[in-house]
TrEMBL record:
Annotated keywords: Iron, Iron-sulfur, Metal-binding
Protein name in UniProt: 4Fe-4S Mo/W bis-MGD-type domain-containing protein
Species: Natrinema pellirubrum (strain DSM 15624 / CIP 106293 / JCM 10476 / NCIMB 786 / 157)
Lineage: Archaea, Methanobacteriati, Methanobacteriota, Stenosarchaea group, Halobacteria
Domain of life of the native organism: Archaea
Molecular function terms, GO-annotated: iron-sulfur cluster binding; metal ion binding; oxidoreductase activity
Length: 258
């Protein structure tokens, strides 16, 4: 910083010369001068930060899985694991000998699959693990502060804060409410929504509804989309294989249009 006589007198007139000398001008005296670099490829600044950046993607193992968020395409993915947590996902390119696939040791190679089928997977599937392991994800039950079984206080919806409760408290509250509905014979309006997951998502909701004499509803019941159409046409509901396996099929039916 160059402080001219005119600048000094102007600063002195406003009473800011002390601050000027102590902050702006004074601070510049402790800053290292800029090194002149003729070839930036031969003289690069400190690169220690790169190791920290690279370690973000360091992994312990690679696990094979199938993406199943609800699109029914079942794309095969590799999950790169670190301390038991997936840190990134990548598509599996089924072309090498012995890759996972239908029909035995040859895998998809025997089915004549080439790299032209790849890549499989979309951004939703490739980033779904971030949502699952997101630090801000709520992993415990919460109850609206102004709510109680005896006084639901519906006016507080959208306004009240939520407070954390134990799993035992949450399950007791749900059970009490369901028992109350059963006593009032109100389960004709009970809608069982299936849980998530590959194992329990279909059976759990149906069993719960059956216990109380209710039924399971889905959106397909009222707009008659894919599952009803599959059942009427083929007698079987929504069974999709990995697209790489299509070429191994003896007979293929394409329903609808693209």
């Amino acid at each position: 910083m160059s402080l001219s006589r005119r600048d000094f007198l102007a600063a002195a007139g406003t009473g800011t010369v002390g601050a000027l000398l102590g902050s702006a001008w004074g601070a510049t005296q402790s800053v290292d001068s800029i090194t002149q670099v003729d070839n930036p490829l031969k003289a690069y600044p400190n690169r220690d930060w790169e190791e920290v950046y690279h370690d973000i993607y360091e992994y312990d193992s690679v696990d094979w899985t199938v993406c199943h968020p609800n699109c029914t395409q079942s794309c095969a993915l590799n999950f790169y694991m670190k301390n038991g947590v997936p840190i990134r996902a990548e598509q599996i390119y089924h072309e090498e000998e012995g890759s996972p696939g239908p029909g035995g040791p040859g895998g998809y190679e025997e089915a004549g699959v080439t790299r032209h089928w790849n890549p499989r997977g979309c951004m939703k599937g490739l980033t779904l693990h971030r949502r699952t392991f997101e630090p801000s994800r709520i992993k415990y039950p919460m109850v609206r502060k102004g709510w109680s079984p005896d006084d639901p206080n519906p006016e507080g919806r959208g306004e009240d804060e939520f407070e954390r409760v134990s799993w035992d408290e949450a399950i007791d509250l749900i059970a009490e409410k369901m028992a109350s509905l059963e006593d009032e014979k109100r389960f004709h309006i009970f809608n069982a929504i299936k849980s998530d997951g590959l194992i329990t998502r279909h059976g759990a909701g149906r069993r719960l509804a059956s216990i109380f004499g209710g039924c399971e509803w889905t959106e397909y019941d009222w707009y008659a989309d894919l599952p009803p159409g599959h059942v009427i046409t083929t007698g079987y509901q929504t069974s999709d294989a990995d697209a790489s396996a299509w070429r191994a099929a003896d007979y293929t039916i394409m329903q609808g249009k693209t």
